[in-house]
Specification:
Strand 1 and strand 2 form a beta hairpin. The chain is mainly alpha-helical. The chain is elongated. It starts with a strand and ends with a helix. It has one domain. It contains 3 helices and 2 strands. It has a two-stranded antiparallel sheet. The chain is about 65% helix and about 5% strand.
Length: about 100
């Protein structure tokens, strides 16, 4: 009986690929995940240099969206993030608070 490493669906009707992903989770992993990793990394790098609140909020939104899509794959150990999930969550939370106060 197969079990998807990402969504945890299992059963006799579930087929997984060599990475243990079902047909619903595999397309994102192979086609879109590299773009989300790149966008997350670029947003984090830009947030270190940004001085404009509007630009910071835009980058924070991108970072939150990308991290949201990557989260389950990271928890399953299928992707390497720029930092651990708790560290990224904490960093984004701190940046949200910093720019809300500005």
């Amino acid at each position: 009986m197969a079990k998807c490493k990402n969504c945890r669906r299992k059963g006799f009707m579930i087929e997984t690929d060599v990475n243990g992903l079902c047909s619903d989770c595999a397309p994102y992993y192979y086609l879109t995940m590299p773009d989300d990793l790149k966008a997350l990394d670029q947003s984090l790098q830009a947030l270190k240099r940004i001085n404009n609140a509007a630009a910071a909020f835009g980058r924070l939104e991108i970072a939150h969206e990308c991290l949201g899509r990557l989260r389950s794959y990271a928890e399953a150990g299928l992707v390497r993030l720029p930092a651990g999930l708790p560290e990224l969550d904490n960093l984004l939370q701190q940046l949200d608070l910093h720019w809300q106060d500005s």
